[in-house]
Write a structure and sequence with these properties.
Blueprint: E1 7-8, H1 19-25, H2 42-62, E2 69-72, H3 75-92, E3 100-104, H4 109-120, E4 124-128, H5 138-144, E5 149-153, H6 167-176, E6 180-184, E7 203-207, E8 218-222, H7 251-287, E9 293-295, E10 306-311, H8 316-322, E11 326-327, E12 329-330, E13 332-335, E14 338-341, H9 343-347, H10 352-356, E15 358-362, H11 369-389, H12 391-396
Parallel strand pairs: 1-11, 3-4, 3-5, 5-6, 6-7
Antiparallel strand pairs: 2-8, 7-8, 9-10, 10-15, 12-15, 13-14
Bound molecules: pyridoxal-5'-phosphate.
Length: 402
């Protein structure tokens, strides 16, 4: 059977809405259009009921209480609310009450840029380094803690290399030291088991569009007990979401996020197993046919649906151009007018050249084995062709293959 082109294999960037999610959402645009805050008629009650149902679906996936879920416009907002919401009130009380945050070099920009802004207004931030496999060192974390530390923010799984941090151990350290623990779990939730109780998490960011839900909706888990987390709001007006996030709720989006979580809870185990096999097949199929290929990030502590490879002796742009019927991401990021190597890969110690010639493969629910075979073939033939064109690579080849 011929595969349908182009192939989408960039599921760490976003995912297609699952048809079951769309179906659940549709009535909330039309006949069930009520405002969830309208307390005196049927339209409002129906919307509120749908929102509360979604809160339950999300809470079940991460073992939280539904009352601990705050809806947002996405994980960027959830990360902002979690970190600024903890740091701002304490800073206003003065430096003595604590102003130190610990995070890591390979966080998403939604965490790093918030920390950079807080540094400008008087917070101290420690950016933990990662080892060549992308993992932080727990001893580095212990050493970074000071009496002024108020928050640890470490992501569950990285969006470029899929590496999973030792979240339960970090949670334990945070608890011992009575420091709040925020986790950007966008890439982990729905893919691997996430349990805010077992992992000792106080704040956790979720995004719908990374788990086959719609864009522009997310949630922040905010612990209510042991300890009860107090956040200052970023958006005032109306006091929705227990005063933490005002604004009329995006009811269809929230219904979609809830349904996406329900499906993940039911299908995660089987889906992860399927994607792990496909991912491993992709890896083997490429690496057994090409030398000069390296894996970025730990292969053991890794999401089942992620593969990140560097190909020496080829230009990243040329490689992506050569496989332009396959949607993947490169290890280059366009910041303003410049093309820069991925800061995540650089933090692992990957050279600038190799970072540019890296590819992230993000497998997802709708990928098939035929697609994996096609992608592997295209990558292998493209890399071989580009290397043949490159006189530099000829000289660098291993002797036996010259
Ligand atoms: C996508 C992503 C975000 C941002 O989520 P949005 O809902 O798009 O704002 C934050 N963190 C990680 C790890 C992500 O992958």
């Amino acid at each position: 059977m011929a595969v349908k082109l182009p192939i989408y294999m960039d599921n760490q960037a976003t995912t297609a809405v699952d048809p079951r999610v769309l179906e659940a959402m549709l009535p909330y645009f039309t006949e069930k259009f009520g405002n969830a805050a309208s307390r005196n008629h049927e339209f409002g009650w129906k919307a509120e009921e749908a929102v509360e149902n979604a809160r339950g679906q999300i809470a079940r996936l991460i073992r939280a209480n539904p009352r601990e879920i705050v809806f947002t416009s996405g994980a960027t907002e959830s990360d902002n609310l979690a970190i600024k919401g903890v740091a701002d009130p304490l800073r206003e009380k003065g430096r003595e009450s604590g102003n130190h945050i610990i995070t890591q070099a390979t966080e998403h920009k939604a965490v790093l840029d918030v920390c950079k802004r807080l540094e400008k207004s008087g917070s101290d931030v420690t950016y933990l380094p990662v080892s060549a496999d992308g993992l932080i060192d727990l001893d580095d974390l212990r050493r970074a803690i000071t009496p002024k530390t108020i928050l640890i923010s470490i992501m569950y799984a990285n969006n470029e290399i899929g590496v999973i941090q030792p979240i339960a151990e970090i949670g334990k350290i945070a608890k011992e030291k009575k420091i709040l623990f925020h986790v950007d779990a966008v890439q982990a939730v729905g893919k691997i088991p996430v349990d805010v109780q077992k992992d000792g998490i106080d704040l956790l960011s979720i995004s719908a569009h990374k788990i086959y839900g719609p864009k522009g909706v997310g949630a922040l888990y905010v612990r209510r007990k042991d300890p009860r987390v107090e956040l200052s709001a970023m958006i005032d007006g109306g006091g929705h979401e227990r005063g933490m996030r005002s604004g009329t709720l995006n009811v269809p989006g929230i219904v979609g996020l809830g349904k996406a979580c329900e499906i993940c809870l039911k299908e995660m185990q089987e889906e992860s197993e399927r994607l792990r096999l496909l991912r491993d097949k992709l890896k083997h199929s490429i690496m057994s046919r090409l030398y000069g290929t390296a894996i970025n990030g730990s292969m053991d502590q890794r999401l089942p649906n992620n593969l990140n490879l560097s190909f020496s002796g080829v230009e990243g742009d040329a490689l992506l151009m050569g496989i332009n019927d396959v949607a993947v991401s490169s290890g280059s990021a366009c910041t303003s007018a410049m093309i820069e190597p991925s800061y995540v890969l650089r933090a692992l110690g990957v050279s600038e050249d190799l970072a540019h010639s890296s590819i992230r493969f993000g497998l997802g629910r709708f990928n098939t084995e035929e697609e994996v075979d096609y992608v592997a073939d295209r990558v292998v033939e493209t890399v071989k062709r580009l290397r043949e064109l490159s006189p530099l690579y000829e000289a660098a080849k291993p002797r036996a293959t010259r």
